[in-house]
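Workshop exercise sheet. Pairs work together: one partner reads the sequence aloud, the other fills in the structure field after running the prediction. Swap roles for the next sheet.
Pair: D.N. / O.F.
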Amino acid sequence: MNENKNDRRFFLKNGLLAMAGTAVSVAALSKTPKAEAAAGAKKYGMIIDLNRCTGCQSCVIACKAQNKTLQDKFNTKILTLEDGNYPHAKIVFTPVQCNQCENQNISLS
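Structure field:
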């Protein structure tokens, strides 16, 4: 149980550092006219703990619902990799996002 607590602490600490770095870069970019026009608009980000990803596809469905993409078009996909050998094999899931929520011309389908 102690290892799990340390993993969570490590994830949260690194997640906060990444969010702080993102906030600094967003503040630097906020001087552009487009950003000034949308300064009141909320922007959301998503942090995914890859150690806890089960490949359930809920992030794919949430992105599709939020961005109202066309049928059979997805902006997010889950890569599946089998790692290790029997009897210690495991499946690793990696979500891949387009990160183009404002410009949805890209599709990963």
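Discussion prompt: The longest strand covers residues 76-83. What would you look at next?
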